[in-house]
């Protein structure tokens, strides 16, 4: 009985243990909004508890280490994005059903990730109703940018598409670009032919059941 108890305790410790993430250094500039004081001065990621960063660029490779912005380091994907493989998949598997507390996933500005071509949704909601995925209070998961890192001649936001044309308030025409208001009052703009859109079963990005992202 004592041996069985020790075995069960060891299993429990292994099951609940959370991995320690060893990403690269995060951007150090005070360029980020403080959620607790959004109109106040900009702050660093470190001050928000984000200390372990991984970098992704359109010309990257998941065989790289993902630990810096320098050439030869960025990944092509981040965890749970279609196509994530090799080193990216190693991190994904280590956090599947758990937390990536204090992690930053930094997208290069000006690059485009075409999830329609990649073949599916960027689904962070891996275990709905079973696990809460994301970060923790005081050490969230950050998905965003470093405004000093971009392709092209000047800063531009990274773009996530589903292989369809852009759709925004100035492009609404009722055919290739439509608009509707959700029951909670949010206005959405969408391409009717898009396979990955709000309100469908194939959302381009799914972030339900998460916390502190």
Layout: helices, strands, pairs:
Layout: H1 2-16, E1 52-56, H2 86-95, E2 103-109, E3 112-114, H3 115-118, E4 122-123, E5 133-134, E6 142-150, E7 159-161, E8 178-181, E9 187-190, E10 205-206, E11 210-211
What does the model show?
With 213 residues, the protein is α/β, with parallel strands linked by helices. The chain folds into 2 domains: 19-162 and 206-211, no CATH class; 164-196, no CATH class. Helix content is 14%, strand content 20%. The chain contains 3 helices and 11 strands. The chain has helices spanning 2-16, 86-95, 115-118, and strands spanning 52-56, 103-109, 112-114, 122-123, 133-134, 142-150, 159-161, 178-181, 187-190, 205-206, 210-211. A 3-stranded parallel β-sheet has the order 1-2-6, with no helix packed on it. It has a two-stranded parallel ribbon with strand order 3-7. Helix 2 links the parallel strand 1 and strand 2 (103-109). The longest helix is centred in the N-terminal third of the chain and has 15 residues, at 2-16. It is globular and about 45 Å long. The N and C termini lie far apart (44 Å). Residues 7-19 have low confidence and may be disordered.
């Amino acid at each position: 009985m004592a041996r069985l108890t020790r075995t069960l305790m060891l299993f429990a410790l292994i099951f609940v243990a959370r991995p320690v993430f060893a990403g690269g250094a995060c951007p150090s500039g005070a360029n980020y909004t403080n959620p607790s004081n959004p109109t106040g001065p900009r702050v660093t990621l470190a001050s928000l508890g984000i200390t372990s960063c991984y970098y992704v660029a359109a010309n990257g490779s998941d065989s790289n280490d993902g630990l810096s912005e320098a050439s030869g380091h960025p990944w092509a994907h981040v965890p749970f994005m279609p196509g994530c493989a090799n080193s990216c998949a190693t991190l994904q598997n280590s956090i599947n059903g758990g937390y990536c507390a204090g992690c930053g996933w930094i997208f290069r500005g000006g690059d485009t990730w075409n999830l329609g071509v990649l073949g599916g949704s960027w689904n962070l909601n891996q275990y709905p109703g079973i696990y809460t995925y994301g970060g923790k209070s005081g050490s969230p998961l950050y998905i965003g940018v470093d405004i000093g890192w971009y392709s092209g001649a000047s800063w531009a936001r990274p773009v996530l598409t589903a292989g369809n044309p852009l759709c925004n308030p100035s492009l609404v025409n009722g055919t290739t670009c439509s608009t509707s208001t959700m029951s909670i009052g949010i206005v959405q703009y969408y391409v009717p032919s898009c396979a990955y859109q709000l309100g469908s079963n194939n959302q381009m990005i799914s972030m339900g059941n998460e916390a502190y992202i």
